[in-house]
Amino acid sequence: MEDIVFKVLVASEQHVQYASIICEEMASSAKARGTGIARRSPEYIQQKMLEGKAVIAFHPNGDWAGFCYIETWSHEQYVANSGLIVAPAFRKHGLATLIKKAIFQLSRTKYPQAKIFGLTTGLAVMKINSELGYEPVTYSELTHDEEFWKGCSSCINFEILKSKERKNCLCTAMLYDPAEEKNKQKTKSGINPERHTIKQSLQKIKSYLLASPKNDEDNKTQQSSSSPYTFSHIIQTLKNISHG
Fold first, then answer.
1. Residue 203 sits in the same domain as residue 234
2. Which helix (H) or strand (E) holds 105?
3. Domain that holds residue 122
4. Total domain count for the chain?
5. What φ, ψ does residue 91 adopt, rounded to 5°?
6. What is the rounded CA–CA span in Å between residue 211 and residue 67?
7. How many distinct helices (H) and strands (E) make up the chain?
8. pLDDT tens digits along 84-141
9. Sign of torsion, CA 116 118 123 125?
10. How many CB atoms lie within 10 A of CB 193?
11. What is the rounded distance in angstroms from the CA atom of residue 98 to the CA atom of residue 108?
12. Whole-angstrom Cα distance, residue 244 to residue 241?
């Protein structure tokens, strides 16, 4: 397979001319897969470009190759990376992964505290999402913003969504929670503030014990009375470790 170095960048005013072909390819791709998609107008795509809330990809020869955009919901508490599309001629070259990573990083930069979610029926997209830190969730964990769910009305599966009272549909819901990811990173790094404090205490206790004279009873009595590391303190520290 040919190794193509695509150019993936944040879309801007100079790219609005591609809005129509992007919308056409989104609709055509969904029809070919037999799956639903929330339809967007060329004007909507153009607005995303003007706001700097989209990424666009090009082949080295200048041909349009792919696209994805950002939507925000619930007062920017939730972000969706929507409309991922790769031109048919450039599929199976890893471009979808490049675009997903780029739009994910753009979302994290613009909305660092927001939860990023997506609804998809594509296994390839699910795989990419998992690699980025998304996890499958129930629909109840997504935004409750009515405007988001209205966007599903143009999907061919909308009646299924309605019949299920928005509890599930054919799409799989996936969510990236920055707070959860932060906790995971702390766990992976082995950093636990409480245990770190205990470790420091033990190091100080060890230093004290090593510095204490072993044969001078008077010095023992003097240091033990002035030191915070009493026998009861040492026992309590060891208890904390056993429970931590």
1. yes
2. helix 95-110
3. 7-188
4. 2
5. -80, 160
6. 67
7. 10, 7
8. 999 999 999 999 999 999 999 999 999 999 999 999 888 888 999 999 999 999 999 9
9. negative
10. 8
11. 15
12. 5
